[in-house]
Specification:
Layout lengths: L5 H9 L6 H18 L3 H6 L5 E4 L6 H12 L3 E5 L15 H38 L12 H11 L7 E7 L14 H14 L4 E7 H16 L2 H15 L1 E5 L15 H15 L2 E4 L2 E4 L4 E6 L11 H5 L3 E4 L5 H9 L5 H10 L9 H17 L1
Parallel strand pairs: 1-8, 1-9, 2-5, 5-8
Antiparallel strand pairs: 3-4, 6-7
Helix pairs in contact: 1-2, 2-4, 5-8, 5-9, 12-14
Length: 381
């Protein structure tokens, strides 16, 4: 997990997001508190719960972008979902517990990618050896790595001189994946069935003619996969989700009871009541084992145009103690958005036009006019 200070986190977010300082500070402190908690002894650590966040602001002011950038900084399991995609338990659709299952999958992918990256140098060496064995078959009793010829070919291989040479080499054939159409809410069961059927048909090696460049990539992936311990990844993923997992839930205002609507709305209020134990802390069953949600950080957001945060059920309001209001964007904000962030829109279009041999220039007046039009459209729609 990232050990950046709140000041460093805000500074990094400033490179991509204009304004909204309060929201940046709130998520920065929340992320830093995750790191602080992990420095404590086990007994005290178990007593400290995350302070979940509710971000309030109109569409397009940066709520989702803050979450997206935070995911890259966190180096922790992260998932973004929309509250409207879920239904109350007992109704057709996805239940809220699938959030945790998806978070575990995200953690496994994050850890697997990290392990593969660590194993990459060894995997490349092994892949090179297999290619050299195909180009220069090793005679019985001969030292394969110490001959001058082999070292010469290894040098040529690394310099790309052999990229277009065709070789015959044994490659693993990918497992046959069975596509099973899942009814809403039963995606987990079908994924388990797919895994079961895939394991019944193990992958086999097959001789194939391929050029050296493509073979090196395929073999490197194969060798890296062999160096990764899936059992360790699964156990680490469970711990990572429970201790450092972050969930961003958007469109919370859409499941709040609207003030001008009388009576109970089962679909809206039911989802809130299902979210409550998840945010409070509960055990969720996944195919990798039980996951405790007590220390997962939940960051929620919504525009709240037609409803107010107080329209959420009281218990859920109490579990979102930190509230941050994001400001509507001004013309000056749009001007800064067009020019200041890393890879700004003007910079992107300059690079795109350069591919056609054109030099695109944005004058200050032009940027101001674009910002004014964007602000007017944003206000009207």
């Amino acid at each position: 997990m990232s050990n950046m200070t709140p000041k460093e986190i805000v500074h990094d977010l400033d490179k991509h997001i204009i304004g909204q300082t309060d929201a940046k500070r709130a998520v920065a402190i929340a992320l830093r508190n995750r790191w602080r908690r992990l420095q404590l002894d086990q007994k005290l650590r178990a007593e400290i719960s995350p302070k979940n966040i509710l971000m309030i602001g109109p569409t397009g002011v940066g709520k989702t972008e803050i979450a997206r950038r935070l995911a890259k900084l966190a180096k922790a399991p992260f998932i973004k979902v929309e509250a409207t995609k879920f239904t109350e338990v007992g109704y057709v659709g996805r239940d809220v517990e699938s959030i945790v299952r998806d978070l575990v999958e995200a953690a496994i992918k994050l850890l697997r990618d990290t392990q593969i990256q660590i194993a990459q140098p060894r995997a490349i060496d092994s892949a090179e050896d297999r290619i050299l064995n195909a180009i220069l078959p090793v005679a019985r009793g001969e030292e394969d790595n110490n001959t001058n010829t082999r070292q010469l070919f290894r040098k040529r291989l690394r310099e790309g001189e052999l990229d277009n040479q065709e070789i015959e080499i044994e490659l693993e054939t990918p497992k046959v994946s069975m596509e099973i159409m899942a009814p809403p809410g039963m995606e987990d069961m079908t994924s388990q069935l797919q895994e079961m059927f895939s394991s019944m048909a193990p992958s086999k090696g097959k001789l194939k003619k391929i050029n050296v460049k493509d073979a090196l990539k395929r073999l490197t992936d194969e060798e890296a996969a062999k160096l990764v311990n899936e059992d360790d990844i699964r156990s680490q993923a469970i711990e990572s989700v429970e201790e450092t997992g972050i969930v961003f839930i958007d469109e919370m205002d859409k499941i709040a009871k609207q003030a001008n609507h009388g009576g109970a709305d089962v679909s809206r209020e039911g989802v809130q009541r299902d979210l409550l134990p998840l945010i409070e802390g509960s055990n969720v069953s996944t195919k990798y084992g039980m996951i405790r949600t007590d220390h997962i950080l939940f960051i929620t957001s919504g525009a709240f145009h037609l409803s107010k945060p107080s329209d959420l059920i009281p218990e859920l309001q109490g579990r979102l103690p930190i509230r941050v209001e994001l400001n509507a964007l001004t013309v000056q904000d749009f001007e800064r958005i067009l020019t200041e962030p890393d890879a700004s829109l003007t910079e992107q279009y300059f690079a795109l036009m350069k591919t056609e041999g054109l030099e695109l220039e944005f004058t200050n007046d032009g940027v101001t006019r674009i910002a004014e039009i964007a602000w007017q459209v944003n206000e009207r729609t």
